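Repro:
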Amino acid sequence: ICTRHCRFCNVSSGVVEAVDPKEPQHLAEAVKELDLKHVVITSVTRDDLEDGGAKHFADTINAVRALNPGVSIEVLIPDLQGVEKHLDIVIAANPDVINHNVETVREFYPEVRPEADYDRSIAVLEYVKKQAPQIKTKTGIMVGLGETDEQVFKVMDDSLNVGCDIFTIGQYLQPSPKHIAVKAYVTPEKFAEYKKIGEAKGFH
């Protein structure tokens, strides 16, 4: 259960439960049991928590690393309200990749992500890269919401301008009739074009 109400996401929003203090260890054990080489750790947005869940992310990173030496760790984090001291907690745990998804083009934020802020999300990526150049930064967007190529390229450029290393693009799918409708199904050829352009622009 999430504390926000993004109109593309099928996670329920509402009253959240307390954070499980045993979750970091349980996750570390799952990584070991599955013999993963790379693990992506993510969460709902927890605006109810003083640090947005930053310490819980750090505890989980540390638990996974302690039980699984050699595994590469990627975290996909909420914006943590853009609070630098909370981002510092995640950065200090030194995951291999810090991912924060911009999700969509600037123009669609009021409809798609009403409780988020485009500039704040870009600023999260910028802050992480400035504080820890050794950590790969990553972001991603959905397409199929009616965005133009120019709008997609602007998100690419804004991300590159703050040193973002990795950029992903995925097709938006409507989870239910209550969610935002799909405006277009993007072709494999268009994805290949986006890949070529993104690499030419400088994404790793």
